[in-house]
Design brief:
With 483 residues, this protein is α+β, with helices and mostly antiparallel strands. Helix content is 45%, strand content 18%. Strands 1, 2, 3, 4, 5, 6 and 7 form a 7-stranded antiparallel β-sheet that branches. A 5-stranded mixed β-sheet has the order 9-11-12-14-13. A two-stranded antiparallel sheet has the order 8-10. The two termini are 50 Å apart.
């Protein structure tokens, strides 16, 4: 099932179905328990009425048991013998004994004998017998149980209550009286049938509503997918996906997608400009070198060896710069070696024996300013900053190293024309040379500062440029301390 709408509808339907089934079962159990308790209460009332008559020594054959079909009664003695049953009771179960034929208790005169221990002269008792205060009915909670009884040929389920009574002779009798469970069974069956009939309808409604709601919720996602497919097919990164007016997750997804497209478009544009600029920069030294070699092949005496070597070196430097930029763009992580920055600056300056202007170094003794990173890349940054200063300085180039804000700063200052404030952000872009300060004849392809900034960023630092007094420029490289 590949459709999110279908999975959502199915999941919601299954959850609701389980919840409804559980709730239905719980409701049926509660309903059955309540109705069973009501039947038990009715059975207890019938049992206590019969027990009261036994406590008054009413003869067994004259017991009033009410409606025999609704309340079948069975009376047993201490030995479990059946001494009385209600009229038309043909069979019974669930009371301890299934006998329905009355038998007199052992050692007890059969009830109904008018010559017994009754006062013949008491005509007002109507055969009620002994003093009603001599017998008693147990006040303990009755025992309950379910069973069946057949009354006048009709068999049904009953809830039985068992109540003990003691007559005037001290004989303990147990009255088992039942209340029909037919009403409980009909009610439970009706509720169950209603639930089973309503369940498919409810599930269909839940599935339909979930399908429609999910479809409406996912419509913006489908619009985003369709537009992304069109962008992929057309390769037009200037297009954007529609952003819904809502502030939900779909709207945030659309905004993030558009931000990704913007970043991707910018990256592709930079890549295209980079390739075009690199091709343009490579074309000049290659063309110059080819011309010199062709002239040298035709006229060996006119071959400019020094110019050919210079063009070759320029090509080599440019290729190295392009390779380093490609590695940085690919996400190459810097090393994690601990470096002493002052020593690194002094070592880089000491190797520059052919500089036009001597470099003045102001740095603390080694051992105080440590940073973490790649020695080769950081040395390249310092070298690029010094190359830039040498190219534009008039009479002085100075390098200073100091601690600052949990890290270390390397500042390179020259007394050249400086960098206009409006151009200070643009000079770190690739292949950028300012018209008044970056001519091709000065050397360089406009990659040195771009490389320096990218390396500084990869090391968690930053590279900035400011003015140096009335004239000149100051480039400051800040690097964090060891981590």
């Amino acid at each position: 099932m590949r459709s999110v709408r279908a999975r959502a509808a199915l999941g919601a339907t299954v959850v609701v179905a389980l919840a409804l089934v559980a709730a239905g079962l719980a409701a049926l159990l509660v309903l059955r328990a309540n109705l069973t308790d009501q039947a038990g209460l009715q059975a207890e009332v019938a049992a206590r009425e019969t027990a009261g008559q036994l406590a008054l020594d009413v003869p067994y054959d004259r017991l009033e048991t009410g409606d025999e079909e609704d309340h079948p009664v069975q009376v047993t003695d201490e030995d479990g013998r059946v001494v009385a049953v209600s009229k038309d009771l043909e069979a019974i179960s669930g009371t301890g004994t299934d006998r329905v034929t009355p038998q007199p208790p052992h050692g007890t005169p059969e009830k109904g004998d008018d010559d017994g221990d009754r006062d013949d002269d008491d005509d007002d008792d109507d055969g009620a017998g002994a003093d009603p205060g001599r017998g008693e009915v147990s006040t303990d909670d009755p025992d309950f149980g379910n069973g069946t009884a057949t009354v006048d040929g009709d068999r049904a389920d009953y809830r039985f209550a068992s109540v003990e009574a003691t007559d005037s002779t001290g004989l303990t009798l147990t009255v088992h009286a039942g209340a029909p469970l037919a009403a409980e069974q009909r009610a439970v069956a009706s509720v169950r049938a209603a639930m089973l009939a309503a369940l498919p309808v409810v599930l269909l409604v839940v599935a339909g509503v979930t399908w429609l709601v999910t479809r409406r919720a996912l419509r913006p996602v489908e619009d985003i997918r369709r537009e992304m497919a069109a962008i992929t097919a057309s390769e037009d990164l200037s297009r954007r996906v529609p952003e819904p007016a809502s502030r939900d997750e779909v709207a945030r997804l659309a905004r993030t997608t558009n931000e990704t497209l913007t970043a991707l478009e910018s990256s592709v544009d930079r890549q295209r400009r980079f390739v075009a600029d690199a091709s343009h920069e490579l074309r000049s030294p290659i063309a110059s070198l080819r011309t010199q070699l062709e002239v040298g092949a035709a006229h060996p005496e006119l071959l400019d060896v020094e110019g050919a070597v210079a063009d070759t070196v320029r090509l080599q430097v440019l290729a190295a710069d392009l390779l380093l930029l490609a590695r940085l763009d690919a996400g190459e992580r810097p090393g994690n070696a601990r470096l002493e920055l002052a020593a690194l600056v002094r070592a880089e300056v000491s190797q520059r024996t052919g500089d036009r202007i001597p470099v003045v170094v102001s740095a603390p003794e080694p051992g105080g300013l440590e940073v973490t990173g790649s020695r080769g890349q950081l040395a390249r940054v310092i070298g690029n900053l010094l190359d830039n200063a040498e190219r534009h300085a008039v009479s002085s180039v100075a390098v200073a190293v100091r601690a600052e804000r949990g890290g270390a700063v390397v500042s390179v200052t020259d007394d050249g024309a400086g960098v206009p404030e409006a151009e200070r952000g643009r000079i770190f872009e690739r292949f950028v040379r300012l018209d008044d300060a970056r001519a091709r004849d000065d050397g360089g392809a406009g990659l040195g500062l771009a490389i320096a900034r990218d390396v500084a960023t990869r090391h968690g630092g930053r590279l900035t440029v400011t003015g140096a007094g009335e004239r000149g420029a100051r480039f400051e490289l800040w690097l964090p301390g060891p981590r």
